[in-house]
Amino acid sequence: MSLQYARKVKRRNSSIRENVVSEEEAPAIKFSVTPEWWRFIAYLAFWGMCILAIVVTKLYVKDRLAAGPSDGAACGPFQRNDPDFGVRPGEGFDFDSQSHLVHLFGFSNICANWDYSPSREITAMFYPLFEYSLLIYLFLDFVATTLAHKRGEIEPLFWRLSQIFFPICVFFCAQFRMIFVCLAYESAQQHTAGFLGLQIALILVAMHNGGFIWDANISYKALGGIKGTRFAVVCYVLANMIISSFKLAATIHVVRTGRGARWTLKPTMITGVVVGQIIDW
What we know:
The protein has helices at about 1-25, 35-65, 95-100, 100-105, 120-125, 130-150, 155-175, 190-215, 225-255, 275-280. The chain is mainly alpha-helical.
């Protein structure tokens, strides 16, 4: 009797514990995250990637290109034949004045620092820090927009635009890695197409950020309340569109023709600097 009673008590206590666990909140991990912090990390990673490429280029790439191939083979970056530009098959060339970008566009830019080995491979290993951070930002920003939609803080039209912008931005940002696959000295058009995609994505991000602030009636006291905030948003978006229109025009021309547009080679008031360099800055 005592054993049976003990078993009954045990079964009863067990059922009570099960009921208590089922009524309690399920285990969960809660944390807060700021999407803009991940965008800041992405930008830091990008400039870190640029600095790394510049250092590796100065330490290893420039001397390697100047020396040319040890066997005189006309392959890779040493296969150009343009005596007027000072380059011949199987011979070395000066990185600063005779790189493939200078040859095609008339001027160089920061991208040239990861166009040649071993800088291309080393920079490509660092690159995921930028790509993953940027994709995490895009995802978290879309989550924040989704929550705003569920709270009724944004209009249905803006929510629909957000749903359209999000996959486009993710795709183009993910394809920027093709700059390490499509070599600049083999196909400038394919190489530049990856950069064009990133430009389009960042323009859409800027438009979305400005539109969200406007549509959600967000205001900042430091900007003078709702009117001052909206004025700042308009200035930011317009300035971005004006600058980006020149950048896109120049990049699209390269993707279409494989060479820089003539108007990018026009001289500026700064000695030795052309229009295209100003746009790149």
